[in-house]
Please model this.
Amino acid sequence: MSNHSVISTDKAPQAIGTYSQAIKAGSTVYLSGQIPLVPETMELVDGDMEAQIEQVFSNLIAVCVKPPVAACRTSSN
Model:
C-alpha cells in the first residue's frame, strides 16, 4: 500500500510533463522545481531577475498553501 499523495493547485503553474507540483510521502513533502511562469497565462513573468525570483517563490508558496504543508513553513531554529 502506498503512503503518498499528490499535491496540486491552480494557483501555481500546472506541471508540464509527467511530474507533480509536489508529493507528500509520509511526513516528507517533495516540491518540484519552479520556473517564473505566471499560472494564469503559463508564460514567463515580465521583468528583471528580481521579478522572476518573486514569481518562483510565489509559485512555491502556492503549492505549500493548498493544502497547508507544515514542511514548507520556515523555522526560526
